[in-house]
Give the backbone structure.
Amino acid sequence: MSYPPPQDNFPPHGAPYGAPPPGQAAPQGYPPPASAYGQQLQFGQQHPGYPPQQLPYGMSSPQPQQSGQQHPGYPPHQLPYGTLIPQQQQFGLQQYAPSMPTPPSPGYGPNTMPVNDATAASAADALRKAMKGMGTDEATLTRTLCHYPGPLIPHLKQTYTQRHKRNLESDVASETRSNFEFALLSILRGPLQQDVFLLNKSMKGLGTNEELLNDVLIARSNADLNAIKQAYQSTYHHTLESAVSDDLSALTERLFSMILSATRQEESALVLPQSIDSDVEELHRSTEGKHGTDELKVCSVLSSRSDGQIRAIALAYEAKYRLSLEKVLAKEFSGQMKTALVQMVRAGSDRAMRDAMLLEDCMAGLGTKDDMLVSRVVRCHWDRQHMGQVKGAYKVKYGKDLVQRIKGETSGDYQKLLVAMVE
């Protein structure tokens, strides 16, 4: 799907970014009021209502202790897109002390969620009963697994083996088929091992699945990248850096080498106006401000800045040069380099909108890219508040309900599982 799409008199003159089509009501709280174009803000002052505030990838409010029963307040209420979540970092303000490392996302570091053995045993028994004997109770598999907390998936699998002397993933694989099987197994791998699985899949055989590579590695925290690298080496007995280097070439290989170095500025890093201005001028000189493009300089800047800094850079670039940074990158680059760099800017500027666009890309045109749809829905569903933001962003961008869109592209138990993860 091309980006940006043809505008055809949209948005109406003077309407803010993300405004709904004429005659369509916007979701509550979005789009927020925007400041005047090019308005200069003082350090520490937030652009009114924009950008939508976002946590580093995977960080969410407290999850339930266990699945298998309804916990008060869980799944967390999905807030309208653009609504400020209390824990979220505001533009120009710091949630952490300077340079404090962003903690790993749930499922990427030591588990901090309380483990309830009784609830895990109940879930394990329900899963075994659903697959025992003639036929399979697909509804129970969906109900038990669709919102099971990612960090507790290993404990569930261990409990299943202890109680039933069987392997949960093997049983699911033998009792289910096709896309429904792939979606259930994606959940059962848990967040970290699913990323490792997808990375191997992206580089297996001839060619590279660049979409998968981008989805897993771009705009991740240093802590998550380090966890992924360690898990990949433990699983496949060679480094992720060497695997990526062998599969890519030239400038694309250099870009992903920078990404895998896991040396981004942390989200706690100060967003300093003078540094933002310097980056904006550097990006302009390296792209439309000169004859030819300094690709490595652009890669270096975008791969090493935090989401908050990229968000500020994108806003400042458009204010200064009257052209969005995303459009500049789309013009100056091509192929995998263009896709990766644009993804970095989209994720930093508005992660929920980036994910909404990725989901639509799986369903646009003839046919559905089911493997990509499953992978992207599963990744978003680990963070329930983020999923709520993605649904709001999708409504704003496409004027459609995400659940209904998925229903139109899928069927059967596969459809029911995806819808359960999104709702």
Notes: The first helix runs from residue 117 to 131.
